[in-house]
Structure formats: structure tokens, C-alpha cells
Amino acid sequence: MKVKIKKLNPNAVIPSYAHDGDAGMDLTAVSKSEDEYGNIVYGTGIAFEIPKGCVGLLFPRSSNAKKDLSLSNAVGVLDSTYRGEVTFKFKRQLKIVEKEISSEAYSRIVERDFDEYASYECGDRIGQIIIFPYPTIEFEEVDELSDSDRGNGGWGSTGK
Description:
By secondary structure, the chain is mainly β.
């Protein structure tokens, strides 16, 4: 599938697969700022023209586990009609330090300044994008749904 991409920043890196068979292509930060809500915002300097009927899903990389950050919306959705810069917003995570004194454990929250958080820098791969087609859904309202083995069992319904 061909997808049009535009560099909005001369330092932008065109996404690519790290390994043959990978589903996600790495995205690289070219800018880093903080928004009015305290999120760290990374710009990739690129915009996509996702084909109609397809979606781009933005995920953090597994290396994010080494950072004091969590993606603010868990998974980003890049619709086919969006033409702006792809950005990632990360929330800073508070570190909880646990120590055991005698037989009791206690926790304290360690507060740090913006620059002290383990975060990404410009030039780092900050996330990945997966682009794939999706079906157009048409709902049909009914009075009853068919039975299934699970039924309406929710969390823990498998008993394992």
C-alpha cells in the first residue's frame, strides 16, 4: 500500500520498519515541548495522507518502559482525513519509591522538575505507526442477541 507523506520539518525522518516482518514503523521526534496541561509533546515533523478506508494507529515503543512517561491517550488514531503533524503527548508519571523499614513498607512520591524526568530527546524514536484497512460498520438494532458460551460474563469470567 502506498501512503503519501510530507516532511514539515527538514529534520523529519521518514518512518521505516526496523526488521523484516514488523507491523509498526518507527516515528522519530524532531521537537519537544510542554503543553498547558503538563504533557510532554513530541512533534515528528511529518504529516500523512492515509488512504480512505484505512487508519493509522499510533503506539508507544516498548522502550517507553524505560521512561517516566505514559502516552496520554493510550493509542492515537490517525484518521484518513487528518493532514496535520503527527504528535505524541506523554504524561509524566510520578515515581513511587517503596522501602521496607523493619516489617513495614512505606511509599513516598518523588517529585521532579521537567528536565529530571527520563524522557525522549529530539532524534529519538518515540513511537510507532501501524496503517491498515478497517471495515465500515453499520449497526442493526435488535431486541435480542444470540447466545454464546461467555454470555454477559465480564472481567474474570473465564475463571483463570
